[in-house]
Amino acid sequence: MLHRTHDLISPVPGTGRQIHSFHFGPTDGAGKIYIQASLHADELPGMLVAWHLKQRLRELEQTGRLNHEIVLVPVANPVGLEQVLMDVPLGRYELESGQNFNRLFVDVSDQVGDEVEPHLGDDPQHNARLIRASLRRALEAQVPNTQLQAQRLTLQRLACDADMVLDLHCDFEAVAHLYTTPEAWPKVEPLSRYLGAQASLLATDSGGHSFDECFTLVWWELQQRFNHRFEIPQGSFSVTVELRGQLDVDHHTAGADADAILDYLTDFGAIAGTATPQPELLYPATPLAAVEPVTTAAGGLLVFHVLPGEEMSAGQLIADVIDPITDRITPVRCTQPGLLYARSLRRMATAGMVVAHVAGREAYRSGYLLSP
Ligand SMILES: [Zn+2]
């Protein structure tokens, strides 16, 4: 195991933070897997899974079972991890800029396309190598101005040439679910099975330049641009894995999730050995554009009638929102049928707030598909 540290820009004198990456297995170019946890720093189930993975990967490396390089970053957001305001951890948005830590990763597709265009040929593997090298150079050439930009760029450089990127997050209160692209779904479906994911949400471009998409989109955009002249493979695919809710941090669950990821990596060929047979898929993949963010029209005490993991019918009552002064009760219902995979942790709703998410089957939204 190789432990590397990556210094971030120091925002003020006398302070300094680093990203720590742990590298396992061969670096001969046979394949690379990148796994990070807690990019939203108050989403900690993935950090515990990463810790379990770290112990297991050390053993697998020592027994010579790693076919591919595996890079693990258990603390992807040291900037956000330290943000605690009046006893409340605030790990989703940077306090200084208000920006979501998982948005605005840099898009270098045009630059990479311009650089590789004269050198592309008929061999897709040759094209993939050219694009990877160009991508690395383009990201190395970026100069960050702020600590936040430095953090984003460090993570992006570590992951840009990986064949597979797993970004471990969680929701507020939720069942296991994941986000990936329709193009990558055939490769990701076994992961959904091993993890017991109850929703798999697919979108090619959800509009936020999130970490997972900055890798798949480069290849997708180059495919669109050179489609008719050169064969551009899908050089990388990525998954945002939502490991249930924020409070689901325990050894039993994290150990099982680490096992699921190792089974998936064995099935994929990154680890030598025989994988556990794939369990059944608990819920089919659905378009992210079919997810209904269920909102409340009024503020008040939020009292749920349903739990994450329950199947909803159209118009089903999800919660009451109670105004204890007027005694008005506002029912909150979903409009589409589907699986309720996540609900809010807050119990005092504000008017317009999203209280739950339901994975429907029919796409009906377009444009920007993520939360802010
Ligand atoms: Zn997250």
List keywords for this structure.
20 strands; 8 helices; 372 residues; alpha+beta; single chain; binds zinc ion; five-stranded antiparallel β-sheet; 28% helix
Structure overview:
The protein is of the alpha+beta class. The chain is built from 8 helices and 20 strands. A 9-stranded mixed beta sheet has the order 1-2-4-3-7-11-9-10-12, sandwiched between helices. Strands 8, 13, 15, 18 and 20 form a 5-stranded antiparallel beta sheet that branches. The two termini are about 35 Å apart. The model has no long low-confidence stretch (mean pLDDT about 95). Bound molecules: zinc ion. The site of zinc ion has 4 residues, from loops.
User: What form results from the Cα inertia axes?
Assistant: globular
Structural class: alpha+beta
What number is the mean pLDDT?
Answer: 96
Query: For the report, how would you describe the main beta sheet?
Result: 9 strands, mixed
Strand line-up across the major sheet: 1-2-4-3-7-11-9-10-12
Beta-strand content estimate: 25-35%
Bound small molecules, by name, code or SMILES, are: zinc ion
Task: Give the SSE order as H and E letters.
Answer: EEEHEHEEHHHEEEHEHEHEEEEEEEEE
Count of helical stretches: 8
- By oligomeric state, this entry counts as single chain
Whole-angstrom Rg: 21 Å
Based on DSSP secondary structure assignment, what is the total number of beta strands?
20
Low-confidence stretches: none
Distance between the termini: 37 Å
**Percent in helix:** 25-40%
